[in-house]
Model the fold of this input.
Amino acid sequence: MQRKSRPKLAIWKFASCDGCQLSLLDCEDALLAVADAVEIAYFPEATRTVVKGPYDLSLVEGSITTQHDAERIHRVRRASKVLVTIGACATAGGIQALRNFKDVKTLTSLVYATPKYIETLSKSTPIADHVFVDFELRGCPINKAQLVEVIIAYLDGRKPNTPHYSVCMECKRRGTPCVMVAAGTPCLGPVTQAGCGALCPAYQRGCYGCFGPSESPNTRAISEQWKAMGKTPQELVQVFRTFNAYADAFRKESDVHEG
Amino acid sequence: MRMTRASTEKSRSQQVIERRDFQLLLDALMAKGYRLIGPRARDGALVYDEIAAVADLPVGLTDEQERGTYRLKAGDPERLFGCGLGPHSWKKYLYPPELRLWQAQRQNGNMTIVPEPHAPERLALIGMRACEIQALAVLDKVLLGGAYVDRAYQAQREQVLVVAVNCGRAGKTCFCASMNSGPRASTGFDLALTEVLERDRHYFVVESGSKVGADVLSAVPTSPALEADLQKANAIIEQTAGQMGRSLDTHRLQEMLYASTESPVWDEVAARCLTCGNCTLVCPTCFCTTVEDYTDLTGETGSRVRRWDSCFTMDFSYIVGGHVRASARARYRQWMMHKLATWKDQFGTSGCVGCGRCITWCPVGIDITEEAQTIRAQNEAKQDTGTRRKKTS
Ligand code: SF4
Ligand code: SF4
Ligand code: SF4
Ligand code: SF4
Done:
């Protein structure tokens, strides 16, 4: 089917570092092709021009951390035909979800000179906890090739090729010798969703879990192996509490070792 | 002492290349237009990659392998082929991890399919071990033996020259002797080398297995192998056969597996298995792929890409209504059943050649030979209680 219309694209920001939106600007050549294929109607990071909604496709970056944003996301949802969340903040609550494991009042009093000025929710939560999300694109940050793939898939009404299996699949296809096996370096790849192209193992680092839990993450088994490699329970808590700390599988596993 | 010249038919085709002339063998292959692929040390492991000179080989290195662990280490300083198998297998050159199958172009409202040229290269695969030769024979059956032939594999397969190396040492996860696939390369090669390293002499006993192999050899300085050389080479291979780090008793294993579909073994493995897929991707005979269709931003071009897949992924068994093998138990069972049982019904051979890669490269060290032994023990225990019951009744 020939594409006729030029759908309106909007990019929204919630609590986040902007890294995921920047992935789009970082697409270079592809960015021009994106701008040809869609009308960039709302993208404050890139342009002040605002085309009024509703929008055909909204990309949402960031998590919900304030009452104001908890309300704003509903307006974004109402203005969007299709809503795609991008990045670990939007899909899992992000690094700022570390607060979810502590008392937020204690934290604000530790960090801010005048904590009473701070209005914040007790938890940082993913967008899908608040509104219906059509598709989630994982990563901290997202992979720009996957972002472009999601946009094209949307344009053609097909399923995006963004697999949910482990990072190991990409690692092996790439021919990287496993760092767990060949160097005894702990790696989260077996329980982490593919998408980065197995970047860290290619540079002899273990996977940090940027893309969140894989489709069937046996976090208990990987923890046992890491323990055998010398990791302490405290270290295991930290390993699972990073960018995707509040993603179900990682959160539960970190709780086990906190005990 | 004067050596007698070897006289048997088989040994007549055997020659000796001195270590100092080994580069000339590589040169002869390159002169015949082959790109050389061989073992190299990279990122702490032995990988297969392009080579051109002896110095590219893992000279002086060996490895230490166990379930879930692999370390390169110093071996005999001069030895060229002292490393066993690494995580790569030769299938990556014949059946690549990622292959575009075709492209499609939109022209005046019509779609034109642009076939992929699949231009195979002449590749000399250097250092192939006996189990890996057997793995290629198994892949041949799968990809060339049925009604649907894999054209890309076929085209590349025809352009491959195999320089085998008989193993001078077995690793701790090797069990080719159990699977009748090694350690001696007996067929399926153009040249087969046995490396003999002595205090004052370093040489290779070479057997040519094809006309092409013999042609290559004729361009290299060789001398006829003496009886003593052959004996030494034989002794090396026999010693290796006695060193297998693992074994797998295949007697009645297929029926035992079929009788064990509901065994608690699968739950026990599932507790440890990461469902990461590493075992299938390092296995030299696993052939499963997925096909993904892409379109581009202009909407004018599409393409179909084939990638290595694994029965450990959820999408592998996805059909309308859900995943057939959602549990880790079902996925591990599928892998092991296929390798050791259903493969035989499907293709007439074992799906496992005993290379041990799945044991070494499983990040949590799950061992297929150990699981098979557990299945066997359970079956035998069941039979025991069965016969005892009969006796008492
Ligand atoms: S290095 Fe990490 S991602 Fe790669 S195969 Fe090993 S465990 Fe998996
Ligand atoms: S099943 Fe394991 S031991 Fe057997 S051929 Fe495959 S990787 Fe090698
Ligand atoms: S074991 Fe799994 S991945 Fe390997 S060939 Fe069989 S079904 Fe395919
Ligand atoms: S058996 Fe090992 S390598 Fe295979 S999927 Fe399970 S954990 Fe991964």
